[in-house]
Design a protein that fits this description.
This protein is an alpha+beta fold and 85 residues long. It has one domain: Ubiquitin-like (UB roll) (Roll). 20% of the residues lie in helices and 29% in strands. The protein contains two helices and five strands. The chain has a five-stranded mixed beta sheet, covered by helices on one side.
Length: 85
């Protein structure tokens, strides 16, 4: 089955398409893609929904390596509402 693994920043991204056997998990795909060499990913999502490492994958799944937030989204909205952005 074919899946893709992504690691994104605001200005660039890394993407790997993988061909994996049926029965592979999120952890298998993340290991095979070897994108998180610096250990920056704090969580993983499949099609934008948080996933556990042992979750089984399906053909066409997109696995996203999620980085930590650099700013509090609520505080950013407040600042924009006050006109500070």
């Amino acid at each position: 089955m074919r899946v893709e693994v992504l690691l994104a920043w605001p200005d660039r991204y890394l993407r790997r398409e993988l061909e994996l056997p049926e029965g592979c998990t999120v952890a298998d795909a993340v290991d095979e893609a070897a994108l998180d060499v610096d250990g920056v990913a704090v969580a993983v999502a499949v099609h934008g929904v948080l996933a556990r490492p042992g979750q089984l994958l399906h053909a066409g799944d997109r696995i996203e390596l999620l980085r930590p937030l650099l700013a509090d989204p609520k505080e950013n909205r407040r600042r924009r509402a006050r006109g500070g952005d």
